[in-house]
Amino acid sequence: MRIIVTGGAGFIGSAVVWRLNELGFDDILIVDRMDETDKWKNLAPLKFADYVDADDFADELDLHEDADCVFHLGACSSTTETDADYMFRNNFEYTKLLALWTLENDRRFIYASSAATYGDGSAGMEDGTDGLARLRPLNVYGYSKHLFDQWAARNGLFDRIVGLRYFNVFGPNENHKGDMRSLVNKAFGQINSTGKLQLFKSANPDYADGEFGRDFVYVKDAVDMTLHFMENGVGGLFNVGSGRMNTWNALADAIFRALDLPKNVEFIDMPEHLRDRYQYHTLADLTRIRDAGYTAETIPLDEAVADYVRNYLVPGRHLGDQIRDE
């Protein structure tokens, strides 16, 4: 099987390649933009056939018609990006181009949507296409993802393609993401340098400080859910999460336990530019992905954080480094 992974040097993309390697697949084309980040380090332990720059790939699609499956995980993932034109080109128009090309060649197309499409959650967080018109994303990133979901639904593509609404994914291979790194990753550096962790105060009277939170899903679970759709032929729009909402306080507890340190948290004011577009509560409804045959239980937060901190952050490893060391 020949597989294309766009965003293959990025966080979830490189983790998908890692798991594919574990399953015996290495005829993989990595498509990405390296920019000035260190995400090339994610690729060093991995096995793949070739690498192509994302812009070059769009111009030479006919050279890759032998691909059996395309995982389109490449996008601008910054929830604070304000350049709507840039977002639309990268997250909407590029995804349309690849989706149509893949379908014309009768190949499998699995792409990254986002839980950011749910906005403040007031319209619910049930996946599928029935409630798309009710959703109001809080930022241009979420809207760029929502725009493609709507376009695909309007054109009847979800019987043939798979969209995955990733919730708050954390884990190894995210070091290059800057401000978009998970709190676990940021906390590791913060605690090592200052001995404490800063969390945002609540700017919503319905939530106490630290008692709002998210559906935090470990990247290893997110990858397994993604690969579930590679060969099973199911189409649709599915949530990818842990199925649990954990507060920021619970996440802080897990981080300090993983480091064998007493908890030391300082609450700071939430920046003004985030207050009107902040998600206070996310929870993935996993009913549809379960109905699509995914049966594995997701890793509890404490176990996931402990694995990430102790096996990757402390020793400075990437996914696949253990295999290389052995």
Q: Can you walk through the features of this model?
A:
- This protein has 326 residues and is an alpha/beta fold.
- It is 36% helix and 16% strand.
- The strands form four sheets. A seven-stranded parallel sheet has the order 3-2-1-4-5-6-11, with helices on both faces. A two-stranded parallel ribbon has the order 7-10.
- The two termini are 27 Å apart.
Topology overview:
Blueprint: E1 3-6, H1 11-22, E2 28-32, H2 40-43, E3 50-53, H3 54-59, E4 69-72, H4 84-104, E5 108-114, H5 140-154, E6 161-166, E7 168-170, H6 183-194, E8 197-200, E9 213-214, E10 216-218, H7 219-227, E11 236-240, E12 246-247, H8 248-258, E13 265-268, H9 272-275, H10 287-291, H11 301-313, H12 321-325
Parallel strand pairs: 1-2, 1-4, 2-3, 4-5, 5-6, 6-11, 7-10, 8-13
Antiparallel strand pairs: 9-12
Q: What gap, in angstroms, lies between the N and C termini?
A: 27 Å
Spatial arrangement of strands, main beta sheet: 3-2-1-4-5-6-11
Which geometry do the CA atoms define?
A: globular
What is the number of helical segments per DSSP (H or I, 4+ residues)? 12
The poorly predicted ranges are none
Please tally the β strands and state the result.
13
Rg, Cα atoms, Å: 19 Å
Strand portion: 15-25%
Key traits:
13 strands; 326 residues; two-stranded parallel ribbon
Overview in brief:
The chain has 326 residues and is an alpha/beta fold.
